[in-house]
Amino acid sequence: MYLRSILLCLFAAALLSACGGSRSHGLTAIGAGIRGPSGLKAMIYTRDLPHVSAFAYDHAGRLWATTSGSTSHTSDGVYLVSQPGAAARKVVGGIEGPLGLVWVGDRLIVSSLGRVTEYAGFDGVNFRRSKDILSGPVPGGENNNVVLAPDGRLVMGISASCDHCVPASKWSGTILSFRQNGSDLRVLAKGVRAAYGLAYLPGTKQLFASLNQRDDLGSHTPGDWLAIVRSGQDWGFPGCYGQRTKACSRRPAPVGVLDAHAAAGGVALLTLELAGRYRPSALVAEWQLGKIQRVALRRTSGGYSGTTSVFLTGFENPLPVISTRNGSILVGDWGTGIVYRISAS
What is the CATH number of the domain that holds 76? Predict the structure, then answer.
């Protein structure tokens, strides 16, 4: 969403101070144990979300979150944080590996292991109704972020079933599109090892995704990617991982290159007014490395290109990232259960 105008100039100045390559100089202590550009302030939003994996806001401006363990899913669930500083309250349990959620009107759509579920009729305490709108489509498969597309369809990433083999299912290692009732399943893009974060650039149909790479290549392991994903693309997994060989001939190119073995997570897109023009930036969580990268986006004849730089450090395992209505950013630390709010100081 667009940042509120009262914070545009302050936040823009802070973002610009972190520009340039993949450098991390210029970061300073901004509170709550976090380092970032001067001009920003970090504070704790809530502490009660161990293994936090995804965020969404409802129409009332309340924060919803999912939690998902890595090996055990006994504590997984969907939580509500009614206001800053409030304790997170578990609303939905009995769900395994929820990694995405989005509000569609008065319905909450949650993606989890091997299914997508709709929850409706929230009475302030519980949902009165729930139903699976999509089974699978890969049995037990890792369904990642789910977002609402500008055309009203739902879009979701599905991780490949392996690090570097050819998946058996045509749905594995893809980004999918389907109707709000789960019907009309289509492959939007394929050949993607694991698309975790998904976000549409405000006011456009440009879908940005964090793409995780193979981890078996030793010194040849490329950095994870931030990419614009378009319908019909084939990113070439597992044969193509950005190398200059025939395997990558005519494959799409990323907008920004992140760190190797980063376990790229959530994506937040911010549109800032700089010098009288609206300029977008992407923030991407690097789960494995404990930091948030900023990709400064520039318009090109083919869409966008980006310059990557370290924006925030001091986390254990940051995963979900979201921009708020009042112009701040929330970062969820999967490793500690803390949700941080980053705003202009």
Answer: 2.120.10.30
The rounded distance, in Å, linking the Cα atoms of 173 and 54 is 20
What total of structural domains would you count in the chain?
1
11 φ/ψ sector (left φ>0, alpha ψ -120 to 50, else beta): alpha
Token output for 61: 């401006």
What's the burial of 162, exposed, middle or buried (CB within 10 Å: 0-12/13-18/19+)? middle
Tens digits of per-residue pLDDT, 108-147? 999 999 999 999 999 999 999 999 999 999 999 999 999 9
pTM of the entire predicted model: 0.91
In the DSSP assignment, the letter for residue 169 is S
Distance of alpha carbon 306 from alpha carbon 294, whole angstroms: 9
Range of the domain at 292: 5-344
Residue 342 to residue 72: CA distance in whole angstroms: 30
- Count Cβ atoms within 10 A of the Cβ of residue 270 and give its class: 0-12 exposed, 13-18 middle, 19 or more buried: buried
- Cα–Cα distance measured from residue 124 to residue 265, given in angstroms and rounded to the nearest whole number: 30
Determine how many CB atoms are found less than 10 A away from the CB of residue 118.
Answer: 19
Give me the torsion for CA of 21, 40, 201, 155, rounded to 10°. 100
